[in-house]
Amino acid sequence: MPGKLYLIPVPISEENGLQHMPAYNSEIVKSLIHFIVEDAKTARRFLKLYGYSPIDKAELYLLNEHTKSADYSELILPLLNGQDVGLMSDAGCPGIADPGAEVVKAAHEKNIEVIPLTGPSSIVLSIMASGFTGQNFSFVGYLPIEKPEKIRRIKDLEALANKGQAQFFIETPYRNEQLLETLLSTLAPQTQLFIGKDITSKDQYLKSKPVAEWKKTQKPSVQKVPVVFGIYRW
Fold first, then answer.
1. What phi and psi values does residue 134 have, to the nearest 5 degrees?
2. Cβ contacts of residue 75 below 8 Å, gap of 6+?
3. Please, which residues bridge with residue 231 across strands?
4. pLDDT tens-digit series, residues 10-38
5. Alpha-carbon span 54 to 68, nearest angstrom
6. What is d(CA 11, CA 34) in angstroms, rounded to the nearest whole number?
7. Under a CB-based contact definition with an 8 Å cutoff, are residues 203 and 18 in contact?
8. Same domain, residue pair 128 and 228
9. How far apart are CA 116 and CA 93, in angstroms?
10. Are 11 and 18 in contact, with CB atoms under 8 Å apart?
11. Which of 39, 102, 117, 146 has the fewest CB atoms within 10 Å, i.e. the most exposed one?
């Protein structure tokens, strides 16, 4: 009988530790030996946060941008051998804007039970905090890097927002300022722009207002910090 694949959330702000995690998560984490992770050092740090001991007991299997499709079958071998496995992201919930989705897909293909645990997701929290519709929304991940393609994509997303579907997206932290400036210069003045910065940290910032107002007021510093952006038309 195959093992179970547990999707283990990781704090999106280290300063709050396990404040946003149910105690049940720690029980599950402590019961596991095998973990699929993006970065071994980061994973060990969060395992210690969960009270995992001894840390050397953990068997870590790396999953990142260098992982090839052929490697997924190897990652789920412990599951096929009857061992439970934990899948962890570097931050937030695995499988959302995260390479872990491919492991979950492989698990389903092998009829392995997938069990998501409760925890913080900056994307879900942003949708909640934006004031945009919660009935019709889309998270589209990263926008194109090159400016002409990025502008075209923003205009396409704005057209969808104008039709009643809220649009949420993210950027690599060191390009956040550039994206924000492009949004302000591309979007219509009446389009609502949401900025969710450093969510769950002491410096958390969550605000929605029209582009015209953003241009007239001081904007938060978003460089090199995790940010979720959203657009909509009220």
1. -100, 5
2. 36, 61, 63, 67, 103, 106
3. 167, 193
4. 988 877 667 888 889 999 999 999 999 99
5. 31
6. 20
7. no
8. yes
9. 9
10. yes
11. 146
Which domain, by its residues, includes 36? 5-116
Calpha distance 54→208 (Å, rounded) = 45
Instruction: Report pLDDT digits (tens) over 140-187.
Output: 999 999 999 999 999 999 999 999 999 999 999 999 999 999 999 999
Answer yes or no: do 103 and 166 share one domain.
no
Give the pair of three-digit tokens for residue 36: 């699929």
Average confidence (pLDDT) over 79-96: 94
What is the token pair recorded at 115?
Answer: 């069990």
**Cβ count near 43 (within 10 Å):** 25
Classify residue 4 as left (phi > 0), alpha (psi -120 to 50) or beta: beta
Q: pTM of the entire structure?
A: 0.91
The DSSP 8-state label assigned to residue 96 in this structure reads S
- Using DSSP, how many helices (H) and how many strands (E) does the chain show? 9, 10
One domain, residues 110 and 168: no
CB 210 within 8 A of CB 191: yes
Q: Token pair for residue 53?
A: 């001991």
Looking at residue 144, its pLDDT comes to 97
State in Å, rounded, how far the first CA of the chain is from the last one. Answer: 51
Number of structural domains in the chain: 2
Q: CB within 8 A of 17, min separation 6: which ones?
A: 11, 49
